[in-house]
Description:
Blueprint lengths: L6 H16 L1 E9 L6 H14 L4 E5 L7 H4 L8 E3 L2 E3 L1 E4 L2 E5 L15 H13 L6 E7 L6 H9 L3 E7 L3 H16 L4 E6 L4 E2 L6 E2 L6 H8 L4 E4 L4 H9 L8 H17 L10 E9 L2 E2 L8 E8 L2 E8 L12 H6 L9
Parallel strand pairs: 1-7, 1-8, 2-6, 2-7, 8-9, 9-12
Antiparallel strand pairs: 3-4, 5-6, 10-11, 13-14, 13-15, 15-16
The site of adenosine-5'-diphosphate (ADP) has 17 residues, from helix 2 and helix 8.
Amino acid sequence: MACNSSNQELQAQDQKINNFLQNVNHKIIVMSGKGGVGKSTVATNLAVFLSNQGYKVGLLDVDVHGPSVAGLLGLTGLRINTIGDQFQPYHYSDNLKVISIQGLLDQPDDPLIWRGPVKIGIIRQFLADVNWGPLDFLIIDSPPGTGDEPLTVAQTVTGCQAVIVTTPQEIALADVRKSIQFCQKVNLPVLGIIENMSGFVCPSCGNMHAIFKSGGGEKTAANYNLTFLGQLPIDPSVVTAGDAGQSIDTLSSQTKEKMQHIVEQLLQKLPNKQKGVDKTMKIAIPVVQGKLCIHFGHCEQFAIITVADGKIVKQETLTPPPHERTSHFTTAWRKSFLRCPLRHT
Ligand code: ADP
């Protein structure tokens, strides 16, 4: 959709975005104050760990100028396909779907030279026009700082919460404080802070060296009364896994354990942690002589439409029991068919 879209088009797009977001339990934007602190690595690992635990996860890379998610997952040739008017996410696994700006580039190394309104437009399209299906988690990897992309996410993704990644040294923490205040200003709740590159255990001497210092992320979390989700060490296996696009497969056991701890801390912060969102909806449409009836309780019949993964899989017509004065429908009828339209069954 062009950046000069009409109000009507924007409203229609808002509606599509809301429809999608209603089918996502948890929306998390992964932010950082500075580039290079490991934000994309953490966002990607969060998505892979959660999906490996049985959660349905969508990973959306909106880091327009430095999309890394595709590379980190080994999807270097990723292209975004469309079916009809919908973008198709890449199915990395049964539980993990991925969309990255990278998939729009003709050549992987092409730069995107876009101004704010175009960036805002494409992020909204990735929320409105992607065939995500229902998700337990939408993890959004945004560029560092407090620019157009995190602002668009904060203003568009209702119910979104932030995870902030930092390294321990003061120069990174100074920018994290800006990120925290950005979140406060745009009413984006912060789920917690992760301290990445926190110490290096020397393989020769076995001693821990705090190359970028250690503990700064935890102190910052305490200063702002935020949850500290955990630390990840400087670990060459993270670089090797990232460069090879092998995600977590080749991570050291130490980093895997620490990452698992972070995921557990995160899950503790969230209500409704049930896995595997129900993908099926039943929608009851009141009809009279095959046409929409405006009286839900007085119609001749109900057209019951079953929708799974965004597609109609079954249509049936059911005749309600005769209308009664005191109770519109018997309890059995209510239980079997009258689920609220657009609510998960
Ligand atoms: P950002 O998204 O913040 O710009 P990236 O996730 O792209 O940062 O990471 C930048 C580089 O740092 C990558 O080469 C990545 O492999 C590496 N890296 C990230 N976390 C670690 C870590 N804990 N130990 C070692 N290298 C790391």
